[in-house]
Amino acid sequence: MQIAIDGPASAGKSTVAKKLAHNLNYMYLDTGAMYRGVTLEFLKDDIDLTNEELISQKLKNINLTFETVDNQQHILINGVDKGQEIRSVAVTNLVSDVASIKQVREFLVAEQRRIAGKHNVVMDGRDIGTTVLPNAEVKVFMLASVEERAQRRLLDYQRSGEEISLSQIEKDIKSRDYKDQHRAISPLVKATDAVELDTTSLSIDEVVEKLKKIIEKKVKKASHLLVFTLK
User: What is the pTM of this model?
Assistant: First the structure.
């Protein structure tokens, strides 16, 4: 079973996807963390994002793996857990640019499909239902207002000790939305067969319950179609 959850930054995808996967006993794959991990490595080595040869060489030396500790999933970059480093303002401001690079997307999409082929997964990102897992049994497109998303991100930054104004966060989110929606490769769009879910003003538990109902409805419909086909 493949469950694809797409949507813009800070729409609540990762938070609810983790909880949903835990409830279903599925594997959760944080594709955003994978792009952030690559971005962190590019920043560390000051990689020129216009140098295709340098980018390809760098990707060959990046190994991304996941491990779960106390029910929390951690991404390891070449065996090292980078923790909150991948959530820094510097990484956040550059990740859309890195994600628009063809070599990076090809590298990570291949990894995501490889993992999804071995497990029941809940995967969230920008192009999961359209590009990474186009045949996913369940597709959801999550939305939330810019104001709501900015408040959520502000809390994340405060928890990590970073200081940034709410107005700047709103500006950054709008900029990232535009980049994600207008990039040439796998732009952020709602899959034609995805269910739209607005999470503005909804709690995490409320969103998870709505997702469960969407999944249940999809599975029942698929079962009926299967029975009809067999008859």
Answer: 0.82
